[in-house]
Amino acid sequence: MSARSTALVLGLVVAAGGGAFALVYGPRDGALMALFMLGCGALVLGGAHLLARRRRVVGALSRQFVAGISLAIGLVTLGVGAIALLMFLSPHDAFTMIVLLLFAGALSACSASLLAGGVLDDIESVRDGLAAVGEGRREIEITTTAHDELAELAAAANEMAGRLDAEEHARRELVAAVSHDLRTPITSLRLLAAALQDDLVEGPAERGRYLADMETHIAALSNLIDDLFELSRL
After folding, report:
1. How remote is the C-alpha of 218 from its chain's centroid?
2. DSSP class of residue 200?
3. Mean pLDDT for each consecutive 10-residue tract of the chain (234 residues)?
4. CA distance 188 to 220
5. Is the CB of residue 43 less than 8 Å from the CB of residue 77?
């Protein structure tokens, strides 16, 4: 989500929350609630954007999840504490509110950690599968625990491995076929050259026929080499 989209969403939420509060408790309380929501929201979302830009510094995804959740819980807790003081709540009520908020934040962090654990497991599965493909293994099956974008990525990786296996199989068959086709004219050329070298050919006419046969096999070799060049460009 871009910064502009984030600001738009925050503005809509602040307007809706402040407006609803103003209808129930009056314009002054609605304005205070809107200011509180705007301040906390701007700090949390601004920090989230900063973390998103500094992902390389934060490191692993698990740290990014923890940093994002801690940022949101910490700033909202500070905001609620400030509102409690401004509303002149008793110390007991303010402390109770903060404790309950921290408790809710801890539960949210645990829930997010459980969800993040499954996501990280799927990411490791995809990473290990791609590493196996990079090492030359093709008979792999990458699986994930959910039907989400990571599952689509795993399916694409499996399809890629299958295509690579098919291409390598076709390449091996092509090399075998070309080797067989090259062997025939080379063998014939070797026999013809040996016959000429050993003076087994009698008369100019017979020698000319041998030379013509050699030219035919050389032309066949040239055509095979041209075909190989064409295939190498595909």
Report:
1. 50
2. -
3. 77 86 83 80 76 69 71 70 64 70 72 72 84 81 80 86 83 78 80 78 79 84 78 64
4. 11
5. no
How far is 177 from 174, CA to CA, in rounded Å?
Answer: 5
Pair of tokens at residue 206:
């017979």
**DSSP assignments along 48-78, one per residue:** HHHHHHTHHHH-SHHHHHHHHHHHHHHHHHH
Q: What is the pLDDT of residue 226?
A: 78
Q: How far apart are CA 153 and CA 130, in angstroms?
A: 11
- CATH number, domain with residue 225: 1.10.287
Q: Residue 196 domain-assigned?
A: yes
Structural domain count, the chain: 1
3-state secondary structure of 202: coil
Tokens of 187: 């063998």
What would the two tokens of residue 113 be? Answer: 């950690």
Q: What is the rounded CA–CA span in Å between residue 166 and residue 88? A: 73
Closest listed residue to residue 133, CA positions, set 95, 166, 162: 162
Residue 35 within any structural domain of the chain: no
Q: Measured between alpha carbons, how far is 234 from 228 in angstroms, rounded to an integer? A: 10
Can you read off the two tokens belonging to residue 73? 């819980």
Residue 159 is predicted with a pLDDT of 87
What are the φ and ψ backbone dihedral angles of 202, each rounded to 5 degrees?
-105, 130
Domain annotation covers residue 14: no
Which pLDDT does position 200 carry in this prediction?
74
Domain ranges, residue 214: 168-232
Specify if 137 maps to a domain: no
